[in-house]
Amino acid sequence: MAQTVRPILSVLPVRALVDEKFKVVVENLPPASPVTLHSLHQSEDKDFWEAYGHYMSDHRGTVSVAEDLSFGGTYTGKEPMGLLWSMRPVPGSRKGLRLRKMDVCSPVLVNVSVYSGHIAEGFREQAPLASALTERWYMAPGVQRIDIREKRVRGTLFIPPGPGPFPGLMDMWGGGGGLLEYRSALLASHGYASLALEYFSPGELRSSDVELNFFETAFSIVKDHPQVIPDKVGIFGLSLGSIVTIYLAAESTIIKPCCCVCVSGNHCFPPGETLRGIHQVLLENFHKVRVDENNHHIWRDMGLALISDPSKKVDVGKINCPVLLVNGLDDQNWPTVESSEDIAQMMRAAGKEHLLTRVQYPGTGHLIEPPYSPHFRATKFAMDSTKEKVILLWGGQTKPHADAQEDSWRKILAFLQQHLYYSTTPKAKM
Questions:
Q1: For domain 8-137, which architecture applies?
Q2: Helix 240-251 vs helix 212-223: angle between axes, to the nearest 10 degrees?
Q3: 65-82 average pLDDT score
Q4: Element (H, E) at 226
Q5: Domain residue ranges in the chain
Q6: Can you give the pLDDT at residue 208?
Q7: Mean pLDDT for the stretch of residues 323-346
Q8: pLDDT at residue number 424
């Protein structure tokens, strides 16, 4: 009797950075047979995330995720990376989960399997035809990870491989607080010495007396490092980190960032205040918070009240370096697009509009992450004043949000390369 040939599943490359594409191919299937490609990841919190697509093998008995159409599942159409960006918690998981890599010294492990037929559930109850494990890394081989605990500054500095020196970045996350290293590790993998800055711990915003000079000190730690080119240092911020980025670019007389990347931010910062001042103005407008039919908190209106108050806005006309604003048109957490328009008007009035680059994306929410990260429309968030956990509505739809993450990351890297590696930085008009 002829021996049955088992299907062969390959995922290449087996090891790659998280922003690199992979190719998933199944061979030795019966021609024109329905199969399901399934991806599974267990997070560091022990939650399971999955994605799947329905395919038909061709006349050779082959399925290529990069070239063939998915006819159903968590994504449809020709989507080479759909098995990653459409991941979601498996049925029965806790509500409001968000997937974030905390230990960047280990890979994100994704198990890809192929099953017979078009199935949408019960993946654990049946044996796959074939499986393959792939490693996705934020930190490339040779990247150095250095703990920073000096001059009150807490963070982690990532140095690219090679002799250096390299352009530098100060990297800040948002209002949840804590130390998040994965974006800085990825930036170092692309040639930037990046400091992941912990500027307050979770739940500390209401009591945080962090002032301008704290960020100036952190910036100087990057600038003065022997592996960093001192006049090629920028700032990268998301959400609250983006607010701080704009404030520093406009108000600091000590540091001169070479360029700034602001993702889902705005230009509201009480003049001369600390982070505690930001918490206070949020409390003053907290009555404007709405909830949707799922009891998810929508903060947009609270933000609209702030950007309508000139006394709460940073004078962005003082900014003298190139700025890239990245925003989603379906941001339900903050009025980032309205803020972007106002920033553009203010910089135009100051003769600085040539320094501003804006990109915005339809169907895209607040949490614009590195590419192929899952989309989080709503996740749990610890309220700073009460420590109560609510679910915040960030916005966005999975497919357009995934497209925006991929396109914006490409534009961010091009922007950083232009202004930190090349000498084409536009000068402010005096």
A1: Sandwich (2.60)
A2: 80
A3: 98
A4: none
A5: 8-137, 144-421
A6: 67
A7: 97
A8: 45
Q: Name the least confident of 125-139, 362-376, 410-424.
A: 410-424
Q: Of these residues, 19, 330, 331, 342, which one is catalytic?
A: 331
Q: Is the pLDDT of residue 205 over 50?
A: yes
Beta-carbon contacts of 100 under 8 Å, excluding residues fewer than 6 positions away, are 180, 182
CA 354 to CA 328: how far, in whole Å? Answer: 22
- How confident is the model over 166-184, as a mean pLDDT? 95
CB 319 within 8 A of CB 354: no
Query: Which candidate in 225, 267, 297, 366 is catalytic?
Result: 366
Residue 54 annotated in active site? no
Let me know if 366 is a catalytic residue. Answer: yes
Q: How far apart are CA 379 and CA 147, in angstroms?
A: 29
pTM to 2 decimal places: 0.95
Whole-number Å distance between alpha carbons of 241 and 253: 19
Mean per-residue pLDDT, 363-383: 95
> Phi/psi zone of residue 44: left (φ > 0), alpha (ψ -120 to 50 degrees), beta?
alpha
Active-site residue, 113 included: no
Q: Which residue of the set 39, 189, 239, 340 is catalytic? A: 239
What is the separation of C-alpha 317 from the centre of its chain, rounded to a whole number of angstroms? Answer: 27
Q: Which two tokens stand for residue 103?
A: 């230990």
**Residue 349 three-state SS:** helix
Q: Are 179 and 198 in contact (CB under 8 A)?
A: yes
Is-same-fold flag (8-137; 144-421)? no
> What kind of fold does domain 144-421 have according to CATH?
Rossmann fold (3.40.50)
